[in-house]
């Protein structure tokens, strides 16, 4: 059976630690250790206790880890999650990129 698009869903996705590990090209254990040591901020948790990361968190962690933002791994994970409608995904990514750029600009300019 073909995977259906999540077009009706208008809420940006949340990513698991496993998704994040793929996007950062590291292991889930590495992420856990970096969170425990304070190198990464502590993520939000769902009601069931699982850690979740939004797109803004992914951008922040990519900058901490690689000093750059890579959109391709995010799009790949989104596609695997069923978010195949680029007209829906691109605005999320664009808006988060602008917000991240503004945050960095404010930080640098005091």
What does this structure look like?
This protein is mainly alpha-helical and 110 residues long. The protein has a single domain (17-109), classed as Orthogonal Bundle (Multidrug-efflux Transporter Regulator, Chain: A, Domain 2), CATH 1.10.1660. It is built from 5 helices and 2 strands. It has helices spanning 17-24, 28-36, 55-66, 71-80, 86-109, and strands at 44-45, 51-52. A two-stranded antiparallel ribbon has the order 1-2. A hairpin with a 5-residue loop joins strand 1 (44-45) and strand 2. Helix 3 (55-66) packs across helix 5 (86-109). The chain is globular and about 40 Å long. The N and C termini lie far apart (53 Å). The model has no long low-confidence stretch (mean pLDDT 86).
Class derived from helix and strand content: mainly alpha
Distance between the termini: 53 Å
H-E string: HHEEHHH
Spatial order of the strands forming the largest sheet: 1-2
In CATH, the architecture is: Orthogonal Bundle
Q: Taking all residues together, what is the mean pLDDT? A: 86
Number of helices, where a helix is a run of at least 4 consecutive DSSP H or I residues = 5
Name the shape in a single word.
globular
CATH names the topology as: Multidrug-efflux Transporter Regulator, Chain: A, Domain 2
Residue fraction in strands: under 5%
Helical amount: 55-70%
Structural domain tally: 1
Outline the low-pLDDT stretches. none
Largest sheet: 2 strands, antiparallel
CATH class: Mainly Alpha
The tally of strands reads 2
Radius of gyration: 15 Å
